Amino acid sequence: STCIPGYSGKRNGQGPHGACCTHSDDCLDTCLKGVCFNYDAPTTTTTRAPTPTSTCIPGFYGKRNGDGPHGACCTHSDDCQDSCVKGVCFDYDRPTTTVRPTTTVRPTTTVRPTTTVRPTTTTRAPTPTSTCIPGFAGKRNGDGPHGACCTHSDDCDDQCIGGVCRDDEWVPTTTTRPPSTRSPSPSPSCKPGFSGKRNGDGPDGACCTHSDDCIDTCVKGVC
Asked: Residue 172: which residues within 8 A CB-CB, separation 6 or more?
């Protein structure tokens, strides 16, 4: 309330000792607590230049060359690049030193590759019966005789039914009658033109004498 008005915020360096100010640029000398202060102005009290603190940067004190950076020791604002406040150069535009990179942010270690996804093991080839002949299942070479273990009709001489090769023309060795030479009679409702061709073109419902006549399997004379 006792400062001299008309200089605050002008930043023209005209504010005399005792003028109102917001920045040292408003004053001929230094702005201290909103009032221009001239260290050389005569006073009735024992006003002395502030004693530099033990932590200020030496080498600029009393030089009045305007080189003192923020934190340098000073006796006058002319020692500093900006203002001398309580014996230490102070830069009002200097970024605050309270903003630091946080050290609490760390890479999380809780994210791990999941180990619960596994290939399913429930899909298997059909299990041959305990009484089938081993050594033919999965070979797909067409050598499996009647009763051989199989996973597909391609494993068998004829067809694979329930994991066992079945030959419609097979006759048990315990019978005394000669093997039948008749080919199975095609169903009257099957599609003609494929039986006996063994070219694998027979669609579902085509007449057949062997699984080789069909795209898939010949069962009881029908693909």
From this structure: none
Among residues 168, 158, 148, 164, the alpha carbon closest in space to that of 198 is found at: 158
Task: Give the C-alpha distances (Å, rounded to integers) separating 6 from 28, 38, 40, 58, 83.
Answer: 14, 17, 22, 36, 20
169 burial class (0-12, 13-18, 19+ CB within 10 angstroms)? middle
> What's the average model confidence in pLDDT over 82-91?
87
DSSP 129: P
What is the gyration radius of the CA atoms in the chain, in angstroms?
A: 53
Q: How far, in Å, are 11, 20, 26, 41, 85 from residue 4 at the CA level? A: 15, 5, 12, 15, 20
Q: What is the predicted pLDDT for the residue at 157? A: 86
CA pair distance 31, 18, nearest whole angstrom: 9
* Integer Cα distance of 195 and 208 in angstroms: 4
Element (H, E) at 96: none
Three-state secondary structure call for residue 1: coil
Average pLDDT over every residue of 32-48: 71
What tens digit of pLDDT does each residue of 88-118 get? 998 877 766 554 555 565 666 666 666 665 6
Considering the entire predicted model, what is its pTM? 0.25
19-40 per-residue burial string, b: 16 or more CB within 10 A, e: under 16: bbbebbbbbbbbbbeebbbbbe
Does 27 have pLDDT greater than 60?
yes
Q: Among residues of the chain, what percentage have pLDDT more than 90? A: 43
